Amino acid sequence: MANYICELSKRVERQHVRYNNRYGIAIAGDLYTPKGMEDTKKYPAIVVGAPYGGVKEQGPCVYANELAQRGFVVLTFDPCYMGESGGEPRHVSSPDLFSENVSAGVDYLGLLPFVDREKIAAIGICGSGGFALSAAQVDIRIKAVVTASMFDMCAAARGGQTAEQIEKRKEELSLKRWEDAQNGTPEYIPSFPEDAVTDIPDEMQGIWREFFEFYATERGHHDNARGNFTTTSDMSFLNYSLTDYISEISPRPILFIVGEQAESRFFSDMAFEKAAEPKQMIVVPNCNHIDLYDDVTKIPFDRIEIFLKETLK
Is 280 within the bounds of a domain? Predict the structure, then answer.
């Protein structure tokens, strides 16, 4: 299904592509290229990951559409088990698999004759910010990382809970596996309605209200992005850390972009503290978490362009 949340620039071409990740799962992607590319030139390239639960037609298309106009080849994709990508059962999530999806995009880009293999970067929006950092920790082909409203899904899984609360959650998830095994399919409970709505429930506040504003309304609604994953997917996030080796990305640079008003800002602050130089942080004024998904008046594309062209020159 199409339903892209932004209009494609007349200066950009978009082509649907398919390729496999390391586990042999087919990944559905969109390749954005500047119109009028020179046949003999090799271009810098970027793989863009969607917010956790999002698909390529949402935030990634906004970034790809803009950056392709600035001379980059850009790949967006649906994570495995989601959207138009392969993987059964649907809506399964894993920090390892989702980080692997970023490296699989690098695989694909590096095989294109018009891409310079030494000039490939990764951009991760929200949850994909953590996955992009995790991928770059071990995949040295990723020469730079940009995160926007970075959300560390593994840290969030434990998020301020006591040891007793975490133990209770493990028990709930473990017993849920018995139910899933008996039913023959894992439980999946969507977070957002099937059709776009206009009203946001009054009781929904904070960052969850922001998520609802994007995913449940015409602003960002997409049939392939109803939110949440199979219930037992949380087990792998409780048992994994995304940024333990973030300092090993150095000397490759990282650019963190956060909204001044974003409740999620502390994730970027913590990762920035752990990261080694070179690293930069851009705090966007009058900006919340989801504004960095799609608001081109707030996403600092000029700064992103400068950062990537200086890094990949």
Answer: yes
Residue 144, pLDDT above cutoff 60: yes
What is the Cα–Cα distance from 107 to 77, expressed in whole angstroms? 13
Q: What is the pTM of this model?
A: 0.97
According to the model, what pLDDT value does residue 73 have? 98
In this structure, which long-range contacts are made by residues 63-67, counting pairs with CB atoms below 8 Å and at least 24 apart in sequence? Answer: 63/123, 63/125, 63/148, 63/299, 64/14, 64/30, 64/32, 65/6, 65/7, 65/8, 65/9, 65/12, 65/32, 66/9, 66/296, 66/299, 66/301, 67/32, 67/301, 67/304, 67/305
Q: Which domain holds residue 99?
A: 12-152+242-311
CATH code, domain carrying 54: 3.40.50.1820
Model pLDDT, residue 48: 98
Contact 45, 74 (CB under 8 A): yes
- Number of domains into which the chain is organized: 1
Handedness of CA 135, 93, 27, 267 (dihedral sign): negative
134: Cα separation from own chain's centroid: 12
Burial 67-82 (b: 16+ CB within 10 A, else e): bbbbebbbbbbbbbbb
The mean pLDDT of 146-150, rounded to a whole number, is: 98
DSSP 8-state secondary structure symbol assigned to residue 93: -
Closest CA to 243 of 274, 215, 208, 219: 274
Q: How confident is the model at residue 2 (pLDDT cuts 50, 70, 90)?
A: confident
pLDDT tens digits along 262-306 = 999 999 999 999 999 999 999 999 999 999 999 999 999 999 999
Token pair for residue 114? Answer: 């018009």
